[in-house]
Amino acid sequence: MSRHRQPWNWSLHLAALVLFGLALFTHGYLLLAASLILLGAGFFELGLDGPPDNRWFRFVRGGVEWEKNWSAAPWNRVKWSRLAIVVLVGGLSVWALWTQELAAVMLLAGFAVLAWVVRQNRENGIDP
């Protein structure tokens, strides 16, 4: 489990997720195979040098820390409800990409942007 929490491995997993979304949207089996290969490669010990200090790897380090904190948290009502929401949104995203419903994809992207704006506002002291 600790191998995949390295910044390079997490980057491979995010790239695999993007390729999986493209594979669903285009119904491309080669993209699906490429995404599965990247996902599998992300579980190996890569032995690469430390990642450079740039915006992408700061984002990845934040994601790795969030994942560590989330997995260490106890299973309570809040964690179960967040997991249910993620599974529901993930299933809806898979359906929207597979059926190529652009309106549903854009609606999900719009909700993601609105959630990000609400989070930024709360961090800046603005309570909606």
UniProtKB/TrEMBL annotation:
Domain of life: Bacteria
Keywords: Membrane, Transmembrane, Transmembrane helix
Transmembrane segments: 12-44, 102-118
Protein name: Transmembrane protein (PGPGW)
